[in-house]
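F.,

This is the one I mentioned.
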């Protein structure tokens, strides 16, 4: 297909989506893949790219559109295949958090110490929120967050933990940051970044703000070949759940959808206080992590990390129930193994 033909087709796809509530339609999986590839290649004009992404934002993404976009991202992804069983992808929003402390790195370190293999990913200064993201906290913990994918894969194999930047893993998608900054709003690409699955991870944990979004995610995760996906109603729509209230979680696997409610009090966990959850900069969340790993955190701080580490272990299929996963996470901290994992991660380079 020539550049002119691709430009014409892109114009037709924008028109198909933008016909209004009566005549507009969603893109097919193949059309969505073509569209994002055209945007990444610069064949689509900025006006076409912005129009398509914002039309989908206001109408709501369809499952096939997310699948097609994920296919396009996977097709541009550099080689990244850690040789581990049951790799867990933590689908954290790239634009970070502004209202709560970021405990995802702490929870992932503890879960890795209890036997999980985990990959996280992101990109600094991502809008529109531009909050504290997992990568910011990981860097503040003294870990190199700018490694090439093959080095990250070796780290996952060595210590069960890895973080890879979008700029290193999918440079073509990273090149769209100026366009996305100009749009100034969330687009379907923000969800695609949470679901595309670096390293072909068969296990996922994803946070959503509104559980009705599950109806969209169930066919998407199945279409991406995920073996186990844990969808949680986390803080700010992230993958970290609070201990101050119950949270809905849904496990998607080969047997269908399994919904349950996590009751931290029933699990014997101390609720985190407002002070425990207070936001701050990346250094604040890194200090929170160190306090938990070194055994000097408050009970509320420790138990917030325990619960979220347990959910990662459960998502990775390391135990059959969350209570057993909490016990494993608690032992990983008490034995010092979680701290040793952090030190091992710092040595990856």
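My design for it:
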């Amino acid at each position: 297909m020539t550049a002119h033909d691709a430009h014409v087709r892109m114009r037709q796809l924008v028109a198909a989506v933008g016909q209004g509530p009566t005549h507009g339609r969603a893109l097919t999986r193949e059309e969505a893949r073509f569209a994002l590839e055209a945007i990444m290649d610069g064949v689509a004009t900025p006006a076409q790219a912005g129009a398509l992404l914002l039309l989908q934002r206001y109408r709501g993404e369809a499952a096939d559109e997310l699948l097609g976009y994920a296919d396009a991202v996977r097709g541009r992804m550099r080689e990244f295949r850690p040789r581990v069983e049951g790799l867990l992808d933590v689908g954290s929003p790239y634009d970070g958090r502004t209202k709560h402390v970021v405990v995802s790195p702490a929870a992932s370190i503890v879960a890795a110490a209890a036997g999980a293999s985990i990959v996280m990913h992101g990109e600094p200064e991502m809008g529109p929120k531009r909050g504290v993201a997992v990568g910011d906290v990981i860097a503040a913990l003294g870990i190199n967050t700018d490694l090439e994918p093959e080095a990250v894969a070796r780290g996952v194999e060595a210590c069960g933990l890895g973080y890879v930047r979008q700029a290193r893993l999918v440079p073509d998608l990273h090149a769209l940051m100026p366009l996305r900054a100009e749009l100034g709003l969330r687009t379907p690409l923000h969800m695609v970044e949470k679901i595309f699955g670096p390293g072909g991870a068969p296990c996922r944990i994803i946070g959503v703000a509104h559980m009705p979004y599950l109806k969209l995610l169930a066919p998407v995760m199945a279409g991406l070949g995920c073996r186990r996906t844990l969808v949680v109603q986390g803080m700010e729509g992230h993958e970290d759940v609070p201990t101050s209230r119950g949270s809905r979680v849904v496990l998607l696997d080969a047997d269908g959808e399994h919904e349950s409610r996590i009751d931290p009090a029933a699990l014997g966990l101390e609720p985190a206080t407002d002070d425990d959850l207070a936001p701050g900069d990346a250094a604040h969340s890194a200090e929170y992590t160190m306090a938990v790993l070194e055994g000097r955190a408050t009970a509320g701080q420790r138990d917030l990390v325990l619960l979220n580490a347990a959910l990662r272990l459960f998502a990775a299929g390391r135990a059959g129930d969350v209570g057993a996963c909490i016990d494993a996470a608690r032992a990983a901290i008490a034995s010092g193994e979680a701290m040793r994992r952090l030190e091992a991660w710092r040595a990856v380079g």
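The two ends are 42 Å apart (CA to CA).

Talk soon.
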